[in-house]
Amino acid sequence: MNILDYSAIELVDKIKSEEISALEVVNEYIGSIEKSMDLNVFISTRFESAREEAAKVDERIKKGEKLGALAGLPIVLKDNIVVKDEITTCGSKMLENFNSPYSSTVYEKIVEADGIVLGKANMDEFAMGSTTRNSYFGPTKNPLNADLIPGGSSGGSAAAIAANNGIIAVGSDTGGSVRQPASFCGVVGIKPTYGSISRFGVVSMANTFDQVGTMGRNVKDAAILLNTLIGTDENDSTALGNKEFKLDFNFNDEEYLKNIKIAIPSIFMEIELEAEVKAEFEKAIEILKANGVEVKVVETEYLKYSTEVYHLLANGEISYNLSRFDGIRYGYRSEKYTDISELYKFSRSEAFGDEVKKRIMVGTYIMSQEASEEFYKKGLKLRTLIKNEIEKIFEDYDFILSPTSSIMPFAIDSDISNIEIYKSDIFTVPTNIFGGCGMSVPMPKLENGLSVGIHFMGNRFDDANLIKMGIAFEGLVK
Ligand code: GLN
């Protein structure tokens, strides 16, 4: 078998038992990256450092040292997660040359677990988007069909897994940015419960929604990465970790499924789905039912406002979070200014892309004194109503089921409207509004080589159970 065919779990075993060296694995993956450069997966790579780190892993194994859970695994990081003395761009001209003075907790944890980071993946600018077309560094192509978008905003991370440019990847998910690109690229994406992974060194988009998530070719691979990242952090007071979280791969799928109850909100049944999405979603429901899972439609009142609430609140937070990019402390500075106000104005207008500017403007308005009662505060109230509604569903059900996206990946040069794109996030944003966990698991490939992702949303801190569900479901559809 080729090195690229092994799962992450198999590879760690083989590396630790010296059957394959970490250096061989890393070289094989670097070779694969070099063959698919035209996909534009990476903003930067670190091949020399990766090779040195892999050689060190091999040396330590030879000495009989006990290594971490990710020993020698080639990993891809979204380029909004900082690594000390390396460039982090967030897909923006604003940070094109930004050299981070410190490392994120996520990166530190990967290093601690002896994982090897190969590079930083392309993304929509400051994580705003669902396409990876909003990157200053050009769009990433979908490895399943290079004419199509890979989804976003963590499109580089998802494409990396689909193209064997890494075996597991880290993304960030504010409204679906791990799960939707995973779905579009036919891989698994998990967004854990809000606050379970530290955001220290992860550049904020909308901090009450942002959460780091993981991707892999299968649920177990994505889960072992998640397992090393979950934890508290003295540098991030919102990082609660997850005391309930324990990986359990040794359970009886059949028995497990018989005790599972799944809800589908009625509003989700009314949303127009692209034909392939509809057919695959219906298939998924049938398969679950045939295996003893109880699947019921439940009525909801407020969930239908999720996309609007998300954009109202997230844009408000975006306008605050991005105010730090002022041409003085971080990143790009215009050369044309004559006074301080021009310095701010020109630096920001020259370095931010259109989507970012639009969201900052809308967000600034929403948070202004004249508009905040009407919009922001109403949004907050609705967020609470949606949260309560979801909480109520979880009193009786284990998961909420939906497709991951209402649409299939479209052409990179498509002129689909932004509103249509925003609307297609309806199944992923509720998880972030609520703060729970969510996962996209691919259905088998269709004749056109694409696949439809099925979305499971879980209760807060029920991530271990979500992973079991994913493993069981993957077993059913394989
Ligand atoms: N697609 C959503 C947006 O455009 C979500 C982005 C994200 O999760 N970072 O805001």
Description of the molecule:
There is one protein chain. By secondary structure, the protein is α/β, with parallel strands linked by helices. The protein has one domain (1-300, 399-478): Amidase signature (AS) enzymes (Alpha-Beta Complex). The protein contains 17 helices and 11 strands. It has an 11-stranded mixed beta sheet with strand order 1-3-2-4-6-5-10-11-9-7-8, with helices on both faces. Strand 2, helix 4 (105-112) and strand 3 form a beta-alpha-beta unit. The mean pLDDT is 97. Glutamine is lined by residues 127-130, 153, 173-177, 205, 425.
Which descriptors apply to this entry?
Amidase signature (AS) enzymes, 17 helices, globular, binds glutamine
Q: What order do the helices and strands come in, and which of them pair?
A:
Blueprint (H helix, E strand, L loop, with lengths): L7 H9 L5 H14 L6 E4 L1 H16 L11 E5 L26 H8 L3 E6 L33 H8 L5 E6 L5 H7 L2 E4 L19 E6 L2 H11 L23 H6 L2 E5 H5 L4 H16 L3 E5 L7 H16 L18 H12 L2 H13 L2 H28 L2 E5 L14 H6 L5 H6 L2 E6 L10 E6 L4 H15 L1
Parallel strand pairs: 2-3, 2-4, 7-8, 7-9
Antiparallel strand pairs: 1-3, 4-6, 5-6, 5-10, 9-11, 10-11
Helix pairs in contact: 2-3, 5-6, 11-13, 11-14
The structure holds glutamine.
